[in-house]
Every structure is written in structure tokens, then in C-alpha cells.
Amino acid sequence: MLDKLARQIEALLLASDHVLTLERICELTGVHEDSALQAIERIRDSLTAGGHAIMVRKLGKGYRLGTDPDLGELVSGLFEDRRPGRLSRAALETLSVIAYSQPCTRADVEEIRGVNCDSSLGTLLERGMIQITGRKETPGRPLLYGTTSEFLEYFGLTDLDHLPRVGEITELLGMSPDEMRRRSMSVDHESEDGPAGR
Amino acid sequence: MSAETCRISFELFEGPLDLLLYLIRREELDIYDVPLTRVVDQYLDYVRKAEELDLDIASEYLVMAATLTSIKSRALLPRRAGTEEEEDPRDVLLRQLVLYRAFKEISIELKKFEDVWRDSFAAPGERERWASRSAPLFPGQAGVLDLVGTIEKLQTELEGPPPQRVQRPMLTIPDCIGLISEMAVSGRPVLLTELAGPSPTRYRMVCFFVTVLELARRGWVRLRQETPFSALAVERTERWA
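^ inputs. structure came back:
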């Protein structure tokens, strides 16, 4: 049986049509962050213990109730063609670059991908995966792009620190070609060819 | 390489870096293994074949072909002292390959996440957004920069062909003929510059010049010039009634 606070938060989570931040939860329930966090855990445990098809997902700055992805095929039947399709390879590559280099310009992305990114950027903006975060203070004042909370939700990421291999990629982005060569010498050759050998 | 292979390849690859990575892997080379002569030759083969088949490939493939050719030829020339300050194109390429490879792998990772979490559904708010793109915004959903981006997009879309403005020509050739007729009396040559009047606009000057040529063609005027490059004088002929 859930306690009063857990019931309150559960109700808020269901009714909220967007990610609910811890801050907002505390505002509405009048409790401290710690109490709220513990209550959320109780909700989670209760859902798991009861074998429910609903789960509490932590995404970005807040929480959301979501259906178990295992039931995805079934539930998607409710929406048929209204659900947006999967992202294309080009969009995924562009999005990946932005996720780790943000804020970055279109030129930054094109330099890494080696191709024009206009259409991918358009798609990603439309899908709400990226947003314009400002302008770079260099000649031409190009637009800067960054990912959105929708991006985190879509990929089930808690926050940007949970991006795969985030430390390694961030480091790689800052390296010079010589540093890259030196790094390859010191790293075990096995791990170098790992996932790349497809 | 068959035409089919070539065409399919260019459909599969996301760009020149993708093609290069494929060739490097196929040759079982290490991307740190510069200058990759065999790979460069194979890449150029692909591009040449694509051109033969008249395939519409992205210009970036050609830019890369030029870069690789330049790298290849540099490797053949003796190293000159004093050229070390320029960024070595091999270094630039290496960095591009390393980073692109890393992000290609990352995008595959993210796709796995997408496959899982795309299947998790949440409360109505999200669905409302799919159903109607014109759903009202809630506070904080859009910012000034979204507006700026939208306006810029609209501007480029709106900048279609400029509206046509038809202007009445200030001076026509028949007008000029009339004026010349008044000024050019038989027997007395008039300078072209006099015909056009004091401080004529370029348009006016050109108009008179063209008219004079036409009149000369008809035989209604005679053109005189004292010395090369001196002023042109126009004289009415008897033929001009």
C-alpha cells in the first residue's frame, strides 16, 4: 500500500503531460527533495512488485510515467501512422555529433561527417530533437545547436552524462592528430578494432 | 567493379569518409597507417566509375578525391624544408576519419536506445504534439531563438523572384532621332557629345550612341572622326528627308 506522499506524486506523474521536475514535485507537495526522491522509489518498487506495465522513467531534469517498452508493438497500435518514424542514419549521425559537441554550429557537424547536413538538421529541428541555443560570436555569427529534453526522452537517457562513451568521445574531440596517433599506440589494438570491425 | 555495385555503394555510403572507412576495413588496414596508397587508388576508382556511369554523387566525394590525389602526389615528392608550417593534409584526414568512425559507432549505439525507448509511451501531452503541429505552446516551450530561426526560415522561403516593376523608359530611340533631326543640320557636323546634351546620364549617352549607329546604318547620317579616339561628329546626309 502506498503512503499518502507517494500517492500524491503518483497522481502528479500521471496527470503531467510532460517531464515533471523534482523541483516542481516539491513545490506542489510541499516536501523536501529527499522525501520526494524516496517516495518516487516507493512508487517504483510498488509498480515492479505488482508486475505493472507502467514504469517511472528518469529523464533529464525530471520524471515521467511510461509504458514498458516490451509492450511497444501492442501499444503503438493505438497510434498507427501518427507516430513519427525512426530516425535515418544521417539524422542519427548528425544528432550524435551535436549531442557530444554542443553547442556547435552546422559547420562543426559538417566537418566531422564530411557531408552537407542541411536536411538532417531540418529534420531534427522539426522532430524537436535539437534546438537553436544561440549564435557563435565569430564572423557570420552562425547559429549554435544543442539537444533538447525531447532528445533525452526519445533515447531514454537520464541526462547528457549518460550518453554512451561520453568521457572517451569528449576527450577524442579535443585531441590533435598527433595525440590521436599516440593514443592508438598505447591502447590495446583489440579494443581499437572492437565495434568498428563490422 | 560492376555498374550495379558502384550504384549500390553510393547509395549505401553516407559520404566520402564512410566510403574511405569501408575501404580501409576491407583492406584490413589501420587508419593510423598513412598514406594508405591502395585505399586511395580504390577510392579514386569508385569515383571515376561513378562519373562514367553518370551517377549523381555528392560533390563532397569529388572534393575528397582531390584531397586524396593531393596527398598521394605529396607523398611522391621529396620533402621540402620550410613547408612544415602548413597543416599536413594527412593529419587533417586522419582526424576526420577517427572522429567520423567514433560518431558512426555512437549513432549505432543510440539507435539501440531508440529501438527500446521508442516503444515506451507516455501521457497525452506528447501525442497531442504529434497529432497537430499547430498545438498551442505552453509557457517555456519556445524561446526567442526559436522565433529568430523561424523568421529566418520564412525569409528565405519568401525571397522568391522579386516583383517585376516596369519602368517607363526615359528616352527612346525615336525620341533621339527626333532630337538629332532638330540639331543636325545638313552641312554642319554635330559632336555626339553635343547631341546628348550637358552632363548626360550613362543611359542617355548610350541611347544617343545606339541611335547614331542606327542612323548611320540607314545612311541618314555620316560619322566623322578627326583622329583616332577623338570626338565623333555626326553629319546629316541628303538621304535624310
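The CA atoms of residues 29 and 36 of chain B lie 8 Å apart. The first strand of chain B starts at residue 190 and ends at 191.
thumbs up if we can close this ticket
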